[in-house]
Amino acid sequence: MADTPDTLKSMLIGGQWIAQEVSPFESINPATGARNYLISAASDAQVDQAVDTAWQAQRQAAWRNMLPHQRAAILRRIADGMDANASVLARLQMIENGKVWAECKAQVASAAATFRYYAGVCETLCAEVTPPRGNYLSMTHYEPYGVVVAITPWNSPLTMEAQKVAPALAAGNAVILKPSEVTSSPALVLGRIALEAGLPPGILNVVTGLGSTVGRRLVEHPGVRMVSFTGGTASGRAIAHAAAEKLMPVALELGGKSPHIVFADADQDAAIDGVIGGIFEGSGQSCVAGSRLYVQRSIAESFIAKLVARAGQLKVGLPDAEGAQMGPIASFAHRGRIESMVETARREGAQVLTGGERPDGAALSAGAFYRPTVLGGLSREAQAVREEIFGPVLCALTFDDEDDLVEQANDSAYGLASGIWTADYRRAWRVAGRLEAGSVWINTYKQLSISTPFGGFKQSGIGREKGASGLRLYQQSKGIYFGM
Ligand code: NAD
């Protein structure tokens, strides 16, 4: 089936493309302001239908009795389908969230690799025979929850959706994927690819709509047994409340305000590259963006001056323009939020060292563009230092010694990621152990791997996705005893 208009105007429920029952919403290209297409919003009845259908499909022998290596073969075919549709998927993400073309292509490849990785995990992960304490054989056996809901944000839909859907299917669940309203279409194409790969109908359903209506109803639905969510901390908290009412497990990957640390002995050129990529790639719309820069005081002035010069040279452009390093912000509303936070920072005494405004020129005036921005002179109490901006805005701060650094870096509600640049491996190890963060990068940044568990400390989340253990997130264990 072609992906437009039919796939993109429908939802995938029970292997059927279902037309909307309530008013659709617009998908807007943030680089141009033009309407891409209309996306369906699921009605309450359609949400209920998706859950019922998923349950029925999950109970069918075709899926329940499918052996791990057979499920793995389907996951590999989905990966092949993603590769075969790489340009379609990358383009849909690009016109919906404005990421530059090279990053969109790389994210399709990463998403396909995730399906292959979980195919491998699926057919090699073992159950356990546990040590007996009597005359019996005892085992830990792992079973799917049944119906799992995956809810994703707009900044990296391709990779986030693969990261949830692949392990949840490998674990034997039926999945209802609810993509962000800003980036609905890659999920719909993934649904089409999964059907073509031989996934039984109803095992992957894609339901589109707003978080406050469709997302909420899915989370609260009694037929949903587990929710895997990536998004903002406020939404994650609302989901955790709803899950508490049902006593339902949730995995929450939430926001961040990650410290990026440069010691005086660091390779400064490499550190500048790392800091620039860490905050400005994807226009700063990354949960792990290194948005709080801490530079040791003795090198701070010269380091920040060089960094600011580099930031000012970054090429902001249409996402498919030759050499563009930063595309637009993903939506006009989100650019408005970023602008308002930079205004607050100015009122709180920030020096805008570069950026702090929209780029000049007619070519970009119709899009939601914003220049790479570095703010200096802020206190640790400033909103821009404490709250996630989720945009191309870096707060440059200084520290004196390790204790001062650790105290400042950990003075945050968040704890998702962090980076350390130093030539001293003993110091790197010491500081890594003291940082309250789910990931620590040493002399590198934003290095992500599907084989390494990922998640947040504190208000950055609950649970760990990725890695072989990421499959267990979508299963519950059962103790089985054979009397001897
Ligand atoms: P968001 O929280 O507004 O929305 C995320 C998803 O949740 C969307 O699909 C939305 O429709 C849905 N949703 C919102 N409220 C809901 C509710 N009450 N019940 C059910 N579903 C609901 O986030 P966003 O603006 O799309 O994404 C940006 C945020 O995501 C940032 O805070 C960023 O840090 C975070 N994020 C975290 C990670 C991570 O791995 N930790 C990765 C990417 C993005």
TrEMBL record:
GO MF annotation list: betaine-aldehyde dehydrogenase (NAD+) activity
Keywords tagged on the record: Oxidoreductase
Entries under CDD domains matching the protein: ALDH_DhaS
Pfam families noted in UniProt: Aldedh
EC number: 1.2.1.8
The keyword Oxidoreductase is assigned to this record: yes
Keyword match Oxidoreductase: yes
Positions of the Aldehyde dehydrogenase domain: 17-478
N-terminal signal peptide: none
Active site positions: E253
Enzyme class: oxidoreductase
InterPro entries, sorted: Ald_DH/histidinol_DH, Ald_DH_C, Ald_DH_CS_GLU, Ald_DH_N, Aldehyde_DH_dom
Family membership: Belongs to the aldehyde dehydrogenase family.
PANTHER family given in the database record: ALDEHYDE DEHYDROGENASE-RELATED
Protein name, per record: NAD/NADP-dependent betaine aldehyde dehydrogenase
Biological classification of the source: Bacteria, Pseudomonadati, Pseudomonadota, Betaproteobacteria, Burkholderiales
Gene encoding the protein: betB_2
